[in-house]
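hiii so my PI (J.) wants the whole complex modelled not just the main chain, which honestly fair. so below is everything: four entries, each one labled with what it is. i double checked the lines twice but i was tired so who knows lol
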Amino acid sequence: MIRVLVAEDQSAVRAGLVLILRSAPDIEVVGEASDGEQAVAQARELRPDLVLMDIQMPRLDGVSATRQVVAEGLADVLVLTTFDLDEYVFGALRAGASGFLLKNTDAKDLLEAVRTVARGEGLISPAVTRRLIAEFAAKPVREPKADPSVLDTLTRREREVLSCLGEGLSNADIATRLDMAEATVKTHVSRLLGKLELRSRVQAAVLAQELGI
Amino acid sequence: MIRVLVAEDQSAVRAGLVLILRSAPDIEVVGEASDGEQAVAQARELRPDLVLMDIQMPRLDGVSATRQVVAEGLADVLVLTTFDLDEYVFGALRAGASGFLLKNTDAKDLLEAVRTVARGEGLISPAVTRRLIAEFAAKPVREPKADPSVLDTLTRREREVLSCLGEGLSNADIATRLDMAEATVKTHVSRLLGKLELRSRVQAAVLAQELGI
DNA sequence: GTCGCGGTACATCGAAAGATGCAGTCGCGG
DNA sequence: CCGCGACTGCATCTTTCGATGTACCGCGAC
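here's the output for the full assembly
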């Protein structure tokens, strides 16, 4: 039995969804929420297998609610919306949603989608999939030249300094932020340059950038 | 009528696919190819609506063939493979495939997939979708803060110097590469720092990185 | 022409960065 | 306990950087 929580602010739509879900023998609607905060609260309380989440909701929007539910590991989230705006799609997926459906999906497909996500798989409306693919393909390939393993040779302090270098801070700035003498900052800079085989803080900053620090 | 080209090196599998496709009244198999080069050639010749493309093929693999077909705008490509290796999936999608199916997909879903892609939408096997989402979500958000327009205020020489800064070169290094006195390099650095409202070459280097220079 | 202006170029000088030596503090095995 | 090594911290000294003033050239406006 798949335990589902329905989060949708328009009661008419919510009733329709619940009706559809109840029609399936293997699906149980364990709760309903009419805004994002309720959705998160009920997810904590009821521990459903899956949350059917609308995006447009008062108090806490669906994307934020999704982020929270996923972050706490409460349930998988299947996002449901009327509009397939890129902003919504990508926002929801980044927030950790397992699926993204448009509301024009018919009852049969909705049930199938719920089962698919409950199986731990992912699902996206075909109309949206193409744009997701396009977005994905457009992503620059993560240059693997920046090897995170070299960071292992650095001490914690050195990593902190490196991070600051990545922001373009001067030694004095770093000294203030990390609360140490400028001379000490220089020591750390010098040491990490040696370990990373770099010749100046500029190269260190570039490296920090590539490593996403 | 959806005109389909089937590209698959194993003749038994290919026969099976053709059989399934022919069973649909709205789908027509206009050609078959047993390797990647044939697939591209036939796509050029026959101009199908869609190419059903296997990944493992001799002479030219499916990903490369897909890239070529898409680049020439010949047809949409639906990739079909036995293994859902990340390498295949991401490679195929980057190459411009509109869909990605596993071979364990049943006949009904295969036909539906063909129709979906032919409609201009996208389609991905549920088993693969979740990983695609994960991969997508993991991508760092491309910070748009780096505004290429600020570069317009720089002179050619200053842009050249900025580019060198992005590589982490010292003033002496830059002087050598651009064949000018170190003092001159300093002038340019100083000027571009002013124009870009930066406080050190380190920040300039970081900016150059973000701008992909 | 010649005046102004933007781009390029160089020299000087104070400020910052980087190398180096050294000291205090942990934690660990002998 | 003691020695040892790794980490952190600071001070001194040389190198590099960056701001500033100046000069030359090419080009369009006057």
